[in-house]
Amino acid sequence: MNAPNESAADEVMCQCSGTTRGELQKYFERGMDMDAISQWTGALSGCGGCEWDIADFLKELAEQQKKGV
To answer: What does pTM read for this prediction?
Structure first.
């Protein structure tokens, strides 16, 4: 869980690699898909516990992008 002063971008989404929400968003905005993000960051390549959370987050980002948010 995040410390009270920690921003959402600093939230660690993958405990195995330490990949944060902000890093995932940055790579998504550069056009990377889940596989490319995994190869670049190491996320999704450990225990697999983050797979659904990251997939949901990337889906949310794609929907926001589609709406132009």
So the answer is: 0.84
